[in-house]
UniProtKB/TrEMBL annotation:
(6R)-10-formyltetrahydrofolate binds at R63, M92, K93, L94, V95, N109. It catalyses: N(1)-(5-phospho-beta-D-ribosyl)glycinamide + (6R)-10-formyltetrahydrofolate = N(2)-formyl-N(1)-(5-phospho-beta-D-ribosyl)glycinamide + (6S)-5,6,7,8-tetrahydrofolate + H(+). It comes from the Bacteria. InterPro entries: Formyl_transf_N (IPR002376), Formyl_transf_N_sf (IPR036477), GART (IPR004607), GART_AS (IPR001555). Keywords: Purine biosynthesis, Transferase. Gene3D superfamilies: Formyl transferase, N-terminal domain. This is Phosphoribosylglycinamide formyltransferase. NCBIfam families: PurN (TIGR00639). It is an enzyme of class 2 (transferase). The active site is at H111 (proton donor). Catalyzes the transfer of a formyl group from 10-formyltetrahydrofolate to 5-phospho-ribosyl-glycinamide (GAR), producing 5-phospho-ribosyl-N-formylglycinamide (FGAR) and tetrahydrofolate.
Amino acid sequence: ARIIVLISGTGSTLAALIRAAQAPDSAFEIVGVLADGDAPGLAHARQAAIPTAVVPLRDHPTRADWDRALAAAIAELSGRALPDLVVLAGFMKLVGPAVLSAHPGRIINTHPALLPSFPGAHGVRDALAHGVKITGATVIEVDAGIDTGRILAQRAVEVHEGDTEETLHERIKVVEREMLVDVVSSLAAAPAPQPA
Ligand code: GRF
């Protein structure tokens, strides 16, 4: 299966997907990595000789224009065939109708909390502030909402005494990247998920 990965940050999740894709028995290959800015994580793609593209929101007058540019960049990276899967791995923007309609039922996202609890850009901070003892990570199928799509997988992570947002997030990320690799590998091996 041919996948495109979208990132915004350090790309440790992407790095785990790249390592998994390079395994001899891997069921998927990463054909492109796309960022919404000069994300440090792009270095992982370049080191693995994976084509990259950057589509900054600020380069476009409206969000709809940016969304269309994003869809075009995904198509460009994927070449003549559509990707089998588009994976949002630490991508901090909402994809819009142009991207969603081009890849129905084939966009997944990873979130560092147990959805539907603590959706949005600060799931780790919100869980910690709420005082939960157990949080975790979720892989969902992306729809038009904010972290509202069908839940594909979840794993629990304990909150430790004295945890900060950073220490908790790092502990979650270890579990999160393993779960995402498992989900991508199983989707890649199975027939394409049916459009919703
Ligand atoms: C992940 O926990 C992701 O769910 C969240 O931010 C983190 C991305 O980390 N949105 P990285 O950029 O893959 O290191």
